[in-house]
Design brief:
The complex is a heterotrimer of chains A (306), B (263) and C (357). Chain A is mostly helical and 306 residues long. Chain A has helices at 2-9, 12-43, 50-66, 72-95, 103-125, 151-173, 175-185, 187-192, 197-222, 232-245, 250-270, 278-292; strands at residues 130-131, 141-144, 147-150, 225-226. Chain A has a single domain (2-292), classed as ABC transporter involved in vitamin B12 uptake, BtuC (Orthogonal Bundle). In chain A, helix 4 (72-95) packs across helix 9 (197-222). The longest helix of chain A has 32 residues, at 12-43. Chain B has 263 residues and is of the alpha/beta class. Chain B has a 6-stranded mixed β-sheet, with helices on both faces. In chain B, strands 1, 2, 3, 5 and 6 form a 5-stranded antiparallel β-sheet that branches. The chains are: A mainly alpha (306), B alpha/beta (263), C mainly alpha (357). Chains in contact: A-B, A-C, B-C. Chains B and C meet through helix 2, helix 3, helix 4 and helix 5 of B and helix 8, helix 9 and helix 10 of C. Chain B: Keywords: ATP-binding, Nucleotide-binding, Transport. Chain B: Residues 6-259 form the ABC transporter domain.
């Protein structure tokens, strides 16, 4: 068995190294997946542009630090706000006009919005990869024994957990959160009950995009080469993570994110000969989950009314 | 002896903790008109969905007898297979092919009998051509008979509501069923229209040698036309019998008390 | 029936005239325009193929780029002259079973189509149970998996280096014939009982199933037919470029065809043809946006590479937001309409005028 041999050949140190990598990648996926799952829960659509919101956030942070020389911590706060505004703007201009249109039109509009953001970034920032600036301490490498870890890897899971706690508090214990849950449970009834649907949708996009910005900043520090298409692959994988966890379910998205992140890293670690296929892993998981448990790990069963 | 066309044996349907249909035992015999009635939410449409394969019952069996007398268990079969065996249906909230013409709506229902494969169809081989001509002739005859021929090129969704109900029935007839399930055919119709529909249902039963099983709320229609009635309440059969017996049944009256019959 | 015969004659006549036009373009027009015409024709095939699933069967699939890649690589693998293969596969030699197998272009095209259809059949089994967005993301995923496999199967596909030295095809007549045949076959299928079944599924799956239409069979059929023609189109695309490379088949390529069918009308064959012409010609025309522009001696700074695609994606958005049904909606341009128009060119206006009174 190749697997056992691979494990046997692996030292404890390199195993720990892979685990750290897996957990940090999983956390990043989780943060981005939350945005997909929240939007899907309310509007029943894949926000294709979410991936490109992540990309834009990377550029915001990049230019804030390198071009405008704003201190990095202020830049990060600014980036989060700007990204949230961007998310809301996309919702208002590309999705809101199609609220009563057939689902396929909304889907095409989402693809169009994503495509537009990529092309816009390509035009404004050029297609050449740019190097995300080094952040004091966070970008540095820590050495523990024979393991070398970038400091940000230790922060990513912590930040993710904090964000998740804040989000769950908002969703479960505030009036806005209650309204969000109501809209995702039954759009029409929530409307009749006097929930301001448009506001709730805007807030959802703002929160989802803000989390994406947090993820994007850490992504930039961790994987510094930024291009207009950097969001595409992670975006697809994070949507898959949301499906795996059960679409519409925040905790599910986090679990899904971890499964995909860890899986991807571990495949490369144990089966280096398949490393060329690492991007295919997520899609295979998607097909499997849709085949065996289409509602995802934590999803509720729904049946179409006849 | 009259042949049994459809029989459900202890059919039960559970959604999570809710039992929508509980131990349903229905017998439908050849050429009968059977009505399934009951207050809203009694599980009538769920029963239909169990029979037509939209749902698979949690428990129990659905047994169907083909015209040649062969009995088959259709529990859990696909809706398309069940339609091919000769059970056609209409829907409570009209499900026409909205953007297609009246003519196409009915012509599509003929597709299930097509024997030519898609290659033969693409190249218009003689076998396919013959079948296509026969299908078109059938549809023309059917549409003329029910007086929808003049509107054949209209979009289905542009027809007035009452005509849409008729079109849905005609589309079901085009599949050449033995058993026709009608889900609230008179919903939204006024008394005059309901009376016309009553005649229509009788006519098609005789003309096409059908057996009819329907869900209906209009009691005048049900009482006039049905050979037997099953009454459901909260998923359970509370009464069965001919119209006179049902009208005087204490439990039925109680179940309907305070309920708007036309709701 | 009489009308039917007349329409067939008219269609044949139109094809002959267009073929004459193709011959003219081939003989008289410069290679730049010829290339655009060829690209138009190829995009028309692929747009049509995408319309079969997305417009007619109502199954939103985004896998076209993957199926094109299969077709293109069949052409790449089998039509490069045997003696040139060592040059192409200079890093890792070509698989010994394949290195001496040569096929003429037409055979490689059909093989590519068949292989694409076969793979679509395999993919379709799990994927076509999904609806709407899920189907979109799953097909997109498969399109990427196909690309990833191609990138990694180095001894067959030359991996990321791509395959060069494909005998370039720049013959408008050849490509026109391929497009004409595809158009006729797809139209015949869509106008048959099977095509009606596709439309029924698009309109209402549950009702279609209740009318005895086997969803799985018909969705799969539409998916495979679509993949077949996408494979053919991809093969022609590879032959036109003279080189294939995994990067040519990123899933963003599929968006071009999405725009074609949205613009032309989802569910309209003639609409796809118009869409293909407008999008291909438009993309070429938009190239001015990528060139530096000087107005009265002042360089306009906005015009630089990348602007073309920005304009392109804005057009897509405008089309979706304000013009959802595209040029044709689900209607077709029929001979009846053309004849009516020729006979009464002003009928439409006159009618409105009367109503105005």
């Amino acid at each position: 068995m190749e697997l056992f041999q691979a494990i046997a050949n692996m030292t404890a140190a390199s195993f720990a190294q892979h685990m750290v990598n897996g957990i940090s990648l999983g956390s990043l996926y989780a943060l981005i997946a939350i945005g997909y799952t929240m939007v899907y829960g309310i509007l029943l659509m894949i926000n294709f542009a979410h991936a490109d919101i992540v990309m834009m956030a990377c550029y915001f942070a990049f230019f804030g630090i390198t071009a405008f020389h704003i201190p990095w911590y202020l830049t990060f706060i600014g980036t989060i706000i700007a990204t949230a505004l961007l998310g809301v703007t996309i919702e208002r201009s590309a999705y809101r006009p199609l609220r009563d249109a057939p689902k396929n039109s909304v889907l095409i509009s989402a693809i169009g919005a994503s495509f537009l953001l990529e092309n816009l970034a390509n035009y404004i920032f050029s297609g050449r990869p740019m190097n995300f600036p080094e952040i004091p301490f966070l970008s540095s490498i820590i050495t523990v024994g024979s393991i070398k870890i970038q400091a940000i890897c230790l922060f990513i899971p912590v930040v993710t957990v904090i964000c998740l706690c804040i989000l769950l508090h908002i969703v479960n214990h505030t009036k806005t959160g209650m309204a969000m849950r109501a809209v995702s449970k039954d759009y029409e009834i929530a409307r009749v009950m006097g929930v301001n649907i448009d506001n709730i949708i805007s807030i959802t996009f703002a929160i989802g995009s803000a989390l994406a910005a947090v993820g994007a900043i850490m992504w930039g520090i961790r994987y510094p080469g930024i291009t207009p298409y950097l969001g595409v692959m992670p975006g697809l994988k994070c949507f898959i993570a949301a499906v795996v966890g059960g679409i519409g379910n925040i905790k599910g998205a986090v679990i899904g994110g971890f499964i995909l992140g860890m899986g991807e890293i571990l495949i490369v670690a144990f089966f280096p000969q398949f490393s060329g296929y690492r991007d295919a892993f997520a899609f295979i998981v998607l097909i499997l989950i849709l085949f065996y448990k289409p509602t995802g790990l934590l999803g509720e069963k729904t049946t179409e009314k006849v | 002896m009259i042949r049994t066309v459809l029989r459900t044996e202890h059919v039960t349907m559970q959604f999570g903790g809710v039992i929508a249909v509980n131990d349903l035992n229905i017998v439908v015999k050849e050429h009968e008109i059977i009505a399934l009635i009951g207050p809203n939410g009694a599980g009538k449409t769920t029963a239909f969905n169990d029979i037509t394969g939209v749902y698979t019952p949690t428990k129990g069996r659905v047994i169907y007898t083909k015209t040649n007398g062969q009995e088959i268990d259709i529990t859990g079969k696909k809706p398309s297979e069940i339609a091919q065996l000769g059970i056609a249906r209409t829907f409570q909230n009209i499900r026409l092919f909205k953007d297609l013409s009246v003519y196409e709506n009915v012509l599509i229902a003929k597709h299930l009998h097509l024997k030519s494969n898609f290659v033969s169809a693409t190249f218009r081989l003689p076998g396919y051509k013959k079948e296509e001509e026969a299908m078109r002739a059938d549809v023309e005859r059917l549409l003329k008979e029910v007086k929808l021929w003049d509107v054949r090129n209209e979009k289905a969704s542009s027809l007035p509501y009452g005509k849409q109900r008729y079109l849905e029935i005609v589309r079901a007839l085009a599949t050449e069923p033995q058993l026709l399930l009608l889900d609230e055919p008179a919903a939204g119709m006024n008394p005059k229209e309901t009376a016309e529909l009553t005649d229509f249902i009788r006519q098609i039963r005789d003309r096409f040698k059908l057996t009819i099983f329907m869900i209906e709320h209009h009691m005048d229609l049900v009482m006039e036309i049905s050979d037997r009635i099953y009454v459901l309440d909260f998923g359970t059969t509370i009464a069965t019998g001919d119209p006179a017996a049902i009208q005087n049944n204490e439990r039925v009256i109680k179940a309907y008390l305070g309920e708007d019959e036309d709701a | 029936m009489n009308h039917n015969k007349r329409n067939i004659m008219l269609t044949l006549a139109a094809l002959v005239v267009l073929f004459g036009l193709a011959c003219f373009v081939q003989a008289e027009v410069d290679s730049y325009i010829r290339r655009i015409v060829n690209l138009c024709l190829i995009y028309a095939i692929i747009g049509l193929s995408m319309n079969v699933t997305n417009g007619f069967a109502g199954q939103f699939s985004l896998g076209q780029a993957g199926f094109m890649a299969i077709g293109a690589y069949m052409v790449g693998i089998f039509t490069v002259p045997v003696e040139l293969r060592a040059d192409v596969f200079y890093a890792i030699p070509m698989n010994p079973h394949l290195v001496n197998v040569y096929m003429p272009l037409w055979m490689a095209l059909i093989l590519g189509g068949v292989l694409a259809a076969g793979i679509a059949g395999l993919i379709g089994t799990p994927v076509l149970r999904l609806r709407g967005d899920y189907l979109a993301i799953a097909t997109l995923g498969f399109s990427e998996i196909i690309r990833i496999i191609i990138t990694n199967a180095t001894s067959i596909t030359n991996g990321a280096l791509g395959i060069k030295n494909i005998p370039p095809l720049n013959d408008v007549r050849y490509i026109f014939l391929a497009t004409a045949i595809s158009y006729v076959l797809i139209t015949l299928l869509l106008n048959s009982s099977y095509g009606r079944a596709f439309k029924a599924i698009r309109e209402d799956e549950i009702a279609a199933e209740a009318m005895g239409i086997n969803l799985f069979y018909h969705k799969n059929l539409a998916f495979m037919v679509s993949a077949f023609f996408a494979g053919i189109g991809g093969g022609l695309y590879g032959a036109l470029l003279g080189t294939v490379d995994p990067k040519n088949f990123l899933f963003t390529l599929t968006y071009n065809f999405l725009l074609i069918i949205v613009l032309g009308g989802m569910g309209s064959v003639t609409g796809s043809m118009f869409g293909a012409i407008i999008v291909t010609a438009g993309l070429e025309y938009l190239r001015v946006f990528d060139e530096p522009l000087e107005l009265m001696g002042v360089a306009i700074p906005l015009f630089r590479p990348g602007l073309r695609m920005v304009v392109f994606s804005i057009l897509l958005m405008i089309c979706v937001l304000f013009w959802r049904h595209g040029i044709m909606g689900t209607n077709e341009l029929t001979w009846e309409k053309i004849i009516h128009f020729v006979k009464h060119p002003l009928a439409g206006f006159r009618k409105k005028g009367v109503q105005g009174k």
